[in-house]
Specification:
- The chain has helices at residues 3-37, 42-66, 77-119.
- The protein is an all-alpha fold and 135 residues long.
- Helix 1 packs parallel to helix 3 (77-119).
- It is elongated, with a radius of gyration of 25 Å.
- The N and C termini lie far apart (98 Å).
Length: 135
């Protein structure tokens, strides 16, 4: 088998495996975070969590597929490791950036919700006071 094909197969197996592992980890641990962001609405948190995971898969697997091709032919075993280290390094960086972007956006939503909760008075108004005339 051609060494370039071997590098492609290893790259796809590792990249897809990493993508699945990160998506499952984010889904499992993100559910609690989303429930807090969405004020305890568990059904909505599960739905948003599922949509985020699907988007995560689409973007990452699309990137893995686009980044598969290489113009160079791999001639030796060293070339396999060099090509894999470059490709997998970029895939890991993209996974990390996407994770940080998701956490940033969800944290902004969470902060906005916390600020809105602070704006609501703890006790509803019990009456109305007329303004006093200045003397």
């Amino acid at each position: 088998m051609d060494r370039t094909v071997v590098a492609y197969v290893i790259y796809l197996l590792v990249s897809i495996g990493l993508t699945i592992w990160v998506a499952r980890t984010l889904s499992r641990n993100g559910r609690i975070f989303l429930a807090d962001v969405l004020h305890g609405n568990a059904k909505l948190a599960d739905a948003v969590n599922h949509l985020l995971v699907v988007g995560f898969y689409l973007v990452n697997l699309g990137f893995v597929a686009l980044y598969l091709s290489d113009d160079e032919t791999i001639t030796d075993t060293r070339g396999i490791f060099e090509a894999l280290s470059t490709k997998l390094g970029v895939v890991l960086l993209v996974l990390g950036v996407m994770h940080l972007a998701n956490v940033y956006v969800l944290n902004r939503i969470r902060r906005r919700g916390a600020m809105e909760r602070e704006q609501v008075p703890p006790v509803p108004p019990q009456g109305w006071a007329a303004p006093q005339a200045q003397a």
